[in-house]
């Protein structure tokens, strides 16, 4: 009942998103074959800065805060410190990671423009369904082109019941995450969304250390703390920017009442 739209034009524009989503997934997986996870994480943490510049260029009304810029640089520095001991880069890997980053910036910007537009008529549940259904076609096409599709039959036969259970659970969690991500995109800027996304990865690293005992050096631990601190600082700076106009408006109303 909630999967609705009123304008076919909006539906056609949103059809770009499933293809960018599939491209992000494919280039991300290919980049992991060429680089270590730390390398990808370092490049990925540069995304908020790229998106920050793009958003300010597209939307001149946005306020630029020095503390927000410094917070993003602190987050990036922390990630570099974390991954500096485990960096592995090839020319192909750099190309794939940068391509993945560019597609992700484009994807977040177009989603933000559409979802925060009051005239956009496609409901969030329908957007999520389109992402997870239409996105299948480019993924299948890539699987055929790379030859991976021809190994599916053997993989299906060898898969155990526990493997299928994990696939089912990942699908359910993926759909939930997809819907919540769209909802967050309605409320936050693309830059804030990517800062939040990167923060979740760093927290995942720390949980791995605390819960599963993953090894980590002192420099890497410092980098994780800096990344989390930078993300928190960025959120606090943005919150102050949003609160300031409201406070100014309340003071103006109070002054007008006293005058009258």
Précis, in short:
This protein is mainly alpha-helical and 260 residues long. The protein has helices at residues 8-14, 16-34, 37-44, 47-58, 66-83, 91-115, 124-133, 136-146, 152-158, 161-187, 190-212, 218-259. 80% of the residues lie in helices and 0% in strands.
Which helices and strands, and how do they pair?
Blueprint: H1 8-14, H2 16-34, H3 37-44, H4 47-58, H5 66-83, H6 91-115, H7 124-133, H8 136-146, H9 152-158, H10 161-187, H11 190-212, H12 218-259
Helix pairs in contact: 2-6, 2-7, 2-8, 3-5, 4-6, 4-11, 5-12, 6-10, 7-10, 11-12
Description:
This protein is mainly alpha-helical and 260 residues long. The protein contains twelve helices and no strands. Helix 3 packs antiparallel against helix 5, helix 4 runs antiparallel to helix 11 and helix 5 runs antiparallel to helix 12. About 2% of the residues have low confidence.
């Amino acid at each position: 009942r909630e999967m609705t739209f009123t304008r076919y034009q909006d539906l056609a524009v949103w059809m770009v998103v499933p293809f960018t989503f599939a491209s992000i997934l494919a280039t991300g997986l290919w980049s992991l074959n060429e680089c270590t996870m730390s390398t990808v994480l370092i490049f990925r943490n540069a995304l908020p800065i790229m998106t920050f510049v793009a958003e300010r260029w597209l939307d001149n009304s946005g306020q630029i805060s020095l503390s927000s810029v410094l917070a993003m640089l602190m987050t990036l520095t922390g990630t570099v410190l974390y991954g500096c001991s485990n960096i592995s880069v090839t020319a192909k890997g750099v190309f794939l990671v940068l391509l993945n980053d560019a597609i992700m910036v484009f994807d977040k910007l177009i989603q933000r423009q559409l979802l925060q537009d009051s005239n956009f008529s496609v409901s969030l549940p329908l957007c999520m369904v389109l992402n997870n259904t239409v996105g299948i076609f480019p993924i299948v096409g890539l699987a055929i082109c790379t030859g991976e599709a021809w190994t599916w039959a053997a993989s299906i036969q060898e898969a155990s019941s526990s493997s299928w259970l994990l696939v089912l659970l990942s699908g359910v969690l993926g759909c939930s995450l997809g819907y919540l991500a769209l909802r967050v995109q309605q409320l936050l800027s693309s830059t804030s969304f990517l800062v939040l996304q990167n923060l979740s990865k760093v927290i995942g690293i720390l949980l791995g250390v605390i819960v599963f005992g993953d090894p980590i050096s002192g420099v890497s631990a410092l980098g994780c703390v800096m990344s989390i601190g930078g993300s928190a600082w960025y959120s606090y700076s943005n919150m102050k920017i949003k609160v300031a106009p409201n406070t100014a408006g309340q003071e103006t109303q109070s002054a007008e009442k006293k005058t009258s």
